[in-house]
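User: Study the chain.
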Amino acid sequence: MRKIVRNLVAGTGVLALTLSAGTASYAGGYHVTKPTLTGWASLPAGTFVAGSEPSGALVTGNLNGFTAPFADQPIQGFSGIADNGDGTFDVLSDNGYGNQANSGDFLLRVQRLAPVFRSNTVDVLGGINLTDPNNKVSWKLTRSDRVLTGADFDPESIVRASDGSYWIGEEFGPYLLHFDRSGRLLEAPHALDGVIAPETAARLGVTATARSSKGFEGMAQSPDGRYLYPLLEGTVTGDPAGSLRLNQFDLRTKQYTGKRWTYQLDNPDFAIGDAIAVSPDRFLVIERDNGQGATAVVKKIYEATAQRDGTLRKKLIVDLMNISNPRKLGGFGTTFTFPFQTIEDVVILDDRTIAVLNDNNFPFSTGRSATAADNNEWITIALPSSLRVDRRVLR
């Protein structure tokens, strides 16, 4: 059994909730009748990689209590997560400070973290910088040492392959990027035909077909490990409003197969935050509005099932603005909300339990307080019904 199970149960105790028959979940061996908070941990916004490099020299605007530039690299902006199965997780930092122009001194990095629910904290265990020492990127990078920065790529989703290497979906291409376990780029970036972000369009002198920051926001891996399913955050030019493309990429041939499905947003102004596999034809997708704090209304997780007609049928799994919290974990009330602008990480822990993390857009997002930069919160949620997870997803 995974170490996180012991940490979580020890930290929250047994929930005195309605009993029902079936498999136990993270709710301390009891089933729940509605999505219920079973763990809460927080990494302070002002957490940095000790002894790293200065960052944020070009950051402007309201920094919500912080002063730029920063002496070190912030550990922030969690945009993707991979479960190591031992209570630790590899978490992908975002591209820096919101755009290509101001993030050239933000080093792209995979952080290794572990939530400790007994103390409501998150341990930082290390991490790796992403680099291109073998010149797999054909265009000029920001740094001559080929350490990758937020001006080079905007990483938003991460999958770990069976050999320990990482596949990362990003938004400036959008591209799929393949790194070894030490963070070295293994291949030239894989583009998607017909989808060109403004950053790449400007470099190539062509017309963009996708909006900025609307590339590969989520990426699932098939349970057998053969396919990737990157999901675009925004609609491609010419597609129906609010429709998002989910493409299939074959890890054997390193090519797109031509198979594609469509995820329809509830509102064209909404966005997705993550997409992960539940089984060969089912996915969990975070869908959200752009609000935070008092203006946050729609923050949901859907199960999306692939249909023969090329669509994805949606079923609500969790409303992140209405989570039961009978033990008042984290010091919150009996109804817990996750009112962050960008919620970009979901991971399946067992058949009835998921973990969800926010991207705090350090230091800009203010979902918990209008005057203070958000922390990165890490929550676990017990579900009232089994996800019927393919066991290979949990290996």
